[in-house]
Design goal:
The complex is a heterodimer of chains A (about 80) and B (about 230). Chain A contains two helices and three strands, in the order βαβαβ. With about 80 residues, chain A is of the alpha+beta class. Chain B is of the alpha/beta class and about 230 residues long. Chain B has helices at about 15-25, 70-80, 90-95, 150-160, 210-225, and strands spanning about 5-10, 30-35, 45-50, 85, 100-105, 110-115, 115-120, 135-140, 140-145, 145-150, 165-170, 180-185, 190. Classes of the chains: A alpha+beta (about 80), B alpha/beta (about 230).
């Protein structure tokens, strides 16, 4: 089976996010005064081949833990969709 | 006797020649080691220099950590060999889990390139052995991701065990505890954001970096004699 995965890497709560904070500071000047709590992160889109969804998730979790995210400062969230 | 210092060159490193010059100026023998090599050769110490290894893609150090030479660096560190990561090299060492914590973006979201005063906070490392605590050194910094962070338990442990090696006199980047450099539990692996190699030759203005690099050469020789 083939899956398309979206991996979102987020800074963990409490980790300073100067990029998000700077984006947020620019918002009032653009008229977006109802938007707040901006956090910047990274997203990766990739394809996985695995016997089933659980195996695919297992591979992706390991990929995130060892490479895509640094667990000291980041969390990763994986969403999966089976490809036809 | 001369201390041979392996200076690892990743694609994107840009301080390897500065480190080599500084080491040679202080009487050491620098040897450049390409990142794809699996063997460090006969060296008494290893320096991971500054720059942008592998373009800093994903995170600084995240890809460099998987370079073939890193297995040899880990092995060398495990055997007690002195390993120092400067700036990007510090980031590589945290990504490789040879040092705790991580380096995140500077709190002011600006790239910092300026002279910086640091204070020696522990003598228990290959970079500060014989340099009294409280010694103030003027050494330049040059980084975007130099904001040292770790969880509270790790910080408490680092502080309690004398593993905070260098501290900023005035915290420029938001690092917890104003940490500019840390060591592993044995003191033989050290990472620091300031660039001692840029404050070693008389032409660079300050020569305070020579204090740290000389201590490293001495540690390297001490080990070589064993």
């Amino acid at each position: 089976m083939r899956f398309e995965a979206l991996v979102e890497v987020r800074l963990r709560p409490g980790i300073a996010d100067p990029q998000g904070a700077t984006i947020e500071r620019a918002l009032p000047a653009l008229g977006f005064d109802t938007i707040s709590q901006v956090r910047a992160g990274k997203a990766f889109r990739l394809t996985v081949e695995a016997p089933d969804e659980m195996a695919a998730r297992g591979q992706l979790d390991e990929l995130c833990r060892r490479f895509l995210a640094n667990p000291v400062i980041e969390d990763a969230v994986v969403s999966l969709e089976e490809l036809p | 006797m001369t201390a041979a210092v392996g200076v690892v060159v990743f694609p994107g490193s840009n301080c390897e020649h500065d480190v080599a010059e500084a080491v040679a100026h202080l009487g050491g023998e620098p040897r450049l080691v390409w990142h794809a090599d699996r063997d460090l050769g006969p060296v008494d110490a290893v320096v991971l220099p500054g720059g942008f290894a592998h373009g800093d893609y994903l995170r600084p150090g995240a890809i460099a950590r998987f370079s073939p030479v890193m297995s040899a660096v880990e092995e060398f560190a495990r055997s007690g060999g002195p390993v120092v990561g400067i700036c990007n090299g510090f980031q590589v060492l945290t990504e490789a889990h040879l040092l705790p914590g991580a380096l995140q973006k500077n709190s002011g979201l600006t790239f910092l390139c300026q002279p910086c005063e640091v204070i020696v906070a522990s003598e228990e490392s290959v970079l500060t052995e014989g340099v009294p605590c409280g010694t103030r050194l003027s050494i330049p910094i040059n980084h975007f991701e130099g904001n040292y962070t770790c969880d509270e338990r790790t910080l408490a442990e680092l502080e309690a065990t004398g593993r905070v090696v260098l501290r900023y006199a005035e915290n420029p980047n938001g690092s917890v505890g104003a940490i500019a450099g840390v060591a592993n539990d044995r003191g033989n692996v050290v990472g620091l954001m300031p660039h001692p190699e840029r404050a070693t030759l008389p032409a660079s203005g300050s020569t305070d970096g020579a204090v740290l690099l000389s201590a490293l050469l001495k540690s390297a020789l001490g080990r070589a004699r064993v």
